[in-house]
Amino acid sequence: MSESLSDSLRAQAGALGFDAVGVCGVDAIEGISKRLDAFLDAGLHGDMDWLANHRDRRADPRVLWPQARSVIMLGMNYGPDADPRAILGAHGQGAISVYAQGDDYHELIKPRLKQLARWLIAQAGGDVKVFVDTAPVMEKPLAAAAGLGWQGKHSNLVSRELGSWLFLGAIFSTLELPRDTPEIDHCGSCRACLDACPTDAFVAPYRLDARRCISYLTIENKAAIPREFRRAIGNRIYGCDDCLAVCPWNKFAAVGRETKLAAREALRAPSLADLARLDDAAFRALFAKSPIKRIGRDRFLRNVLIAIGNSGDASLVAEAERLASDDNPLVRGAAVWALSQLLAAERFTSLATHHLAHEHDDAVRAEWQHN
Ligand code: B12
Ligand code: SF4
Ligand code: SF4
C-alpha cells in the first residue's frame, strides 16, 4: 500500500467516526499466549468459558485467519461529558457505567468497520474480516501493537491523546499494509487505578482478577453476587468506571463526538425505585438499543437490589419487600439481602419466618437464614 493510501485510510476512518487508527502485522502479538494462559490457568476469567475456548485463535490472528497479513485497529472515543464518579453513592440513584449510557457500541461500530473495509477493498483489493469485542481477538494488545496506546496497569488501552475512553474494533486484511510503531508504556510509577478499585480486583499491576471486578459481577455473572462484594458495589448497577476515570492521562480526553454513544438522559442517574418496578416489557422498552438489554430484566434487578441494600434509604423497603416475592429466585435472593441491610433485625426475622414457610429455592432460603 502506498503512503497516500495509508493517509486516505486514516482520513476515511476519521470520516466514519473513528478517532484512532493504526496498523500492525498478524505476528505482532507473538508471545501473548503465555500471558493469556497464565490468566486462564489461574481461573481469573471466572465463568467466562468463551474466553478459554479457542485459546490458540485468540492469541494469534494467524490461527484465526491464516490468509490475513495485516490488522487495522480502530478506536472510537466515548469520553463522557461529566465525571462518572459524581453519581457514586447518590441518594436513591443507580450508577450505570459510561459505555452503557448510550446505544450499544457493538451495533454502532460493526457497520462502520464494514464500511471502512469495503472502502479498502475498493481502493486496494484484498479480502477482509471485521471484529468488535465478541470474536476471539485480543483487541487491547493488538491496538497497542498498532500504536493506538498502551495497556495501562488497569489492563485497558490508554491513549496519550484520548485517555481511557476508547472502544476498539479490528479489521483483518489479506493486504500487506505499512505498519505503525507500537506504543510504549507510559504508566511509570503511577498506580492510581490499582488503588481506586473498590473490590481490590487487581492481583498485580496489569493483572485483573475478573471474578472480583464489578463489571464482571454485574454484567457477565449470571448467578447471585457473592456476599463479600455486595457492600463494595455501592450503587453501581451496570459495570464500573473507577479505574478508568482516575487515570491521569484522561486530562487529554475529549467528549466523544458520536451522538449515539452519548448518555441518554434517562440513564445518567436513574431512580432505583423506578428501576425496581420494571417488568420484562418495560425493561426491554427502556433498554432498546442499549447494551444493558443483554443481561435481561432479572439480572438487572438483582443489581438494582444490591444498590437498594446499600442505599440506607428506608423509602426503598417497599420495593425490596415486593421483590422478595418475585417469580425469579435471583431477584428474590437479592431482595432478601437488601431487606437485611435496610430493616431492623426484629422486622427482618419476622418477615423471614413468614417467607420461609413457602420459599422452596435453596439459595433464597439461605439468604433469609443468613442474618
Ligand atoms: C473479557 C473482557 C472483559 C472482562 C475481563 C477484563 C480483562 N481485563 O480481561 C470484564 C467483564 C471484567 C471486562 C470489563 C471491562 N471491559 Co472488557 N472486554 C473483555 C474482552 C471481551 C476480552 C479481554 C481479554 O482478552 N481478556 C483476557 C486477558 C488475559 O487479557 P488482557 O486484559 O489483555 O491481559 C493482559 C494483561 O494481563 C497483560 N499482562 C499480564 N502481565 C503483565 C505484565 C506486564 C508488565 C504487562 C505490561 C502486561 C501484563 O497481558 C495480558 C495479555 O495482553 C475485550 C474485547 C476483546 N475481544 O478484546 C473487552 C474490552 C477489553 N473491554 C472493554 C471495556 C470498555 C471494559 C470496561 C471498561 C467496561 C465497564 N465500564 O464496565 C471494564 C474494564 C475492567 C478492566 N479494568 O479491565 C474494552 C476496552 C477498551 C480499551 N480502551 O481498552 C474492550 C476492548 C471492548 C471493546 N471492543 O472496546 N471486560
Ligand atoms: S472496573 Fe471497577 S471493579 Fe473492575 S477493575 Fe476497574 S475499578 Fe475495579
Ligand atoms: S491510572 Fe496510572 S497506572 Fe493506571 S493506567 Fe493510568 S497511568 Fe497507568
UniProtKB/TrEMBL annotation:
It catalyses: epoxyqueuosine(34) in tRNA + AH2 = queuosine(34) in tRNA + A + H2O. Residues 180-207 form the 4Fe-4S ferredoxin-type domain. Keywords: 4Fe-4S, Cobalamin, Cobalt, Cytoplasm, Iron, Iron-sulfur, Metal-binding, Oxidoreductase, Queuosine biosynthesis, tRNA processing. Pathway: tRNA modification; tRNA-queuosine biosynthesis. It comes from the Bacteria. The active site is at D133 (proton donor). This is Epoxyqueuosine reductase.
